[in-house]
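chain below, 141 aa
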Amino acid sequence: MPSKRSEINEIASRIIAVSALYPSNREFLEKCGITNHSLITDLKKKRIKNPGADILAKVVRGSGCSGSWLLTGLGGMFDKEADYVEEEGVSYVMIKGAISLIEEFEKRIEEADDAELTNELEVKLGKLLVRILERRGDKIN
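prediction:
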């Protein structure tokens, strides 16, 4: 059984991992409603060794991460049933994941021998871009 100290560090590491999905620590903390703007730095430097239940609850509510995962490390960072869409649009998690996926495709497309798969990807991305632009136009009108 791991020591209490290692459990604390593991939870802190998971909070840091969730925060890394956001453009900045400040944006993550604001999204979670956490007023201690040095929390992530404090966790990284082990100045905060045991984030309280209120912090954990705010991280789960604000980021949508799995509470079970945050506490135990078991399962996925996000529950499959979790709602990844915020009230005002797509979450940072979705955006960061999509950008990473597109960057990976960009790297592999240059090396791709299978033109059929490359063409299929281009068509799907094109259709997605059209839908995004149409949706943006609907919001403007």
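The radius of gyration is 19 Å. Confidence is low (pLDDT under 50) at residues 1-7, 81-89.
thats it, cya
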